[in-house]
Specification:
By secondary structure, this protein is mainly alpha-helical. The chain has one domain. 73% of the residues lie in helices and 0% in strands. Helix 1 runs antiparallel to helix 6, helix 1 packs across helix 10 and helix 5 packs antiparallel against helix 10. It is globular, with a radius of gyration of 19 Å.
């Protein structure tokens, strides 16, 4: 019988991942489609979510984590394991972009695996920041993102955005489903799978209904992220960076760090090309970085606590 703490952890992790991390991939999608009623966007995202989970379930013999938990053994879930996503859920309501991977998986991972997760996440942040800076420096020579798309071209950018967002959503899910699956049996029964999918679809609907919540502010406050063209370009670059990092190894990493790194590099590049003073951009970039540091500190505390408990 599925244990009570494991069930609590599964529900809390699902709510945390969807409300905190999903904004990384769907935030620009929501920001640039404010005129479309929320349930249509929810339906589109659910049409990607469901087959993505089902594919992993079939391909990995009942495991929905895409094999990203191979180095994290299945353990009996205790109260302190469920505490991690509960803390994350609270931080999310205050708009803090905490790394779900660190905060949730740190309670299960050994010290060695945690260190590897941290190294890969730092590498991901650096790669995303450098790639984004170089890409937007070059792009700004040919395109002024502050100019709105011509009406004749907007429909093409709309189509491109929906395709790009779908690709990004799938790529991101193949990373972060591990943060939910760690509380579940590694070989889910069909009934358990159906319950898990239904839960995530409902939670996703709530996220769209509240338009991303406070965590969405991280996306909105960045330059032109509410424009469909900019949203499409951001999603495309982010998706390919995640896809590359996914192929490096099966060690879980913080997609939050990669996303924040991407936005950091982009903002600095735009400031450079527009001759804006870096000191005006630095507070925004530094604020985001300090927020992810909060999550890392909490994760370290949780790791220390777990390894001291019997």
């Amino acid at each position: 019988m599925f244990e009570m703490w494991a069930l609590c952890g599964l529900v809390l992790a699902g709510a945390s991942v969807i409300s905190n991390d999903a904004v990384q991939t769907l935030g620009t999608f929501m920001a640039s489609n404010k005129k479309i009623i929320w349930w249509k966007l929810w339906g589109a995202a659910s049409m990607i979510l469901i087959p993505t989970i089902l594919y992993s379930w079939f391909a990995y013999d009942g495991d929905i984590s895409y094999g990203r938990l191979d180095k994290i053994p299945h353990v009996h879930v205790e109260w302190y394991h469920a505490l991690a996503p509960a803390v994350l859920l609270v931080l999310t309501r205050f708009g803090i972009p905490v790394s779900t991977t660190f905060l949730v998986l740190s309670a299960f991972a050994s010290t060695v695996i945690f260190e590897k997760m941290l190294v890969k996440s730092i590498l991901g942040y650096a790669i995303a920041a450098v790639v984004a800076y170089g890409f937007w420096i070059i792009l700004s020579k040919f395109l002024d993102e502050k100019k709105k798309v011509n009406n004749d071209h907007e429909k093409y950018w709309k189509v491109a955005q929906w395709i790009t967002t779908g690709f990004l959503w799938f790529t991101w899910l193949s990373h972060d489903l591990a943060n939910i699956a760690v509380f579940a049996p590694r070989q889910m029964s069909p009934g358990f799978l159906a319950g898990t999918v239904s839960m995530l679809v409902v939670m996703l609907g709530f996220t769209f209904w509240e338009r991303g919540g406070k965590i969405q502010q991280i996306v909105i406050e960045k330059t032109t992220t509410s424009y469909v063209r900019s949203a499409t370009i951001i999603d495309g670059v982010y998706a390919f960076i995640l896809l590359y990092l996914k192929q490096v190894n099966d060690i879980p990493m913080s997609t939050t760090w990669v996303f924040i790194g991407l936005l950091c590099g982009r903002e600095l590049a735009i400031a450079t090309r527009m001759d804006r003073k870096i000191k005006k951009v630095f507070p925004v970039v530094a604020k985001d970085f300090m927020k992810i540091m909060v999550g890392l500190c909490v994760s370290v505390v949780i790791v220390s606590l777990v390894h001291r408990l019997p």
